[in-house]
Amino acid sequence: MEIMPHLQIRDDLGVHYAILPGDPARVDRIAEQLTDVEELAYNREFKSIRGLYKGVPVLAVSTGIGGPSACIAVEELARVGVTHMIRIGSGGALQPGIHLGDLVMVQGAVRSDGASKMYIDPVYPAVPDFDLLTACVTAARQEQLPYHVGLCRSHDSFYTDQEEEMRTKWTKSGIMVSDMETAALFVVGRLRGVHTASILNTVVEYKDDLEQNINNYADGASRTMQGEWDEIHTALEACYIVSSAE
Ligand SMILES: O=P(O)(O)O[C@H]1O[C@H](CO)[C@@H](O)[C@H]1O
Ligand SMILES: O=c1cc[nH]c(=O)[nH]1
Q1: What average pLDDT does range 234-240 have in this prediction?
Q2: Cα 89 to middle of ligand 1, angstroms
Q3: Is the pLDDT of residue 158 over 90?
Q4: Rounded to the nearest 10 degrees, how much is the dihedral formed by the CA atoms of 157, 42, 214, 230?
Q5: What is the ipTM of this complex?
Q6: pLDDT averaged over the chain?
Q7: All domains of the chain in start order, with CATH
Q8: Closest C-alpha to ligand 1, atom 9
Q9: How confident is the model at residue 220 (pLDDT cuts 50, 70, 90)?
Q10: Which of 110, 113, 183, 239 could crosslink 67 through cysteines, CB 3.0-4.6 Å?
Q11: What are the residue boundaries of the Nucleoside phosphorylase domain, all occurrences included (predicted)?
Q12: Nearest CA to ligand 1 atom 1
């Protein structure tokens, strides 16, 4: 038996599905939708629990902010036998018509991060697993949740002097939303043979004040908290759909 150096979880858990928020506080809110919850470890930004969703064993593990810590989580989860990973993140809309709390199911990610480039050439695509993405879309449609399917831009920068120009550039290219971890998850997951998907809860609307809106989310603003509940529910249902088909 081995203990993973960063997640501090054992390699004999025998769980195939993991839900991955960035924020450790979101792990506790995932626990509310699970039964038989057990806290496994809380080391650095990585908080890990195990529980059941409709009888399916699931892990919830926070990945922290940005590609480097997300890659560490993906690598160590793959080493303990997790085969399906769904990010449930927060993001900022880059297009009009995407409202607070709407879900964006990511179909592909622009690799504006550094971590995925440490693994492989930037021409390598950052795309989700088709069946897992389909299961997420099926789940959201089933529950009649507000959702979109489109592209995201995963970035490493929040406070550079070029943020406004970067956002305008990606808006013009039809990118739907920004986050910081999806590209790294898709690339490293693909290289390690893991099925990945990413669902982003919109916490900043197009052209709205980025910092103010992220503060509102941290304060528990109701539409973004509803979006968070919806993305957790969608990801758990997707795990159930995929596990039932196996
Ligand atoms: O809410 P999470 O999942 O952390 O996602 C988003 O929020 C953080 C930035 O505020 C970044 O990690 C970004 O990807
Ligand atoms: O632009 C944004 C907004 C929210 N979260 C991000 O990572 N980027």
Answers
A1: 98
A2: 6
A3: no
A4: 120
A5: 0.97
A6: 97
A7: 17-245 (3.40.50.1580)
A8: 65
A9: confident
A10: 113
A11: 17-200
A12: 90
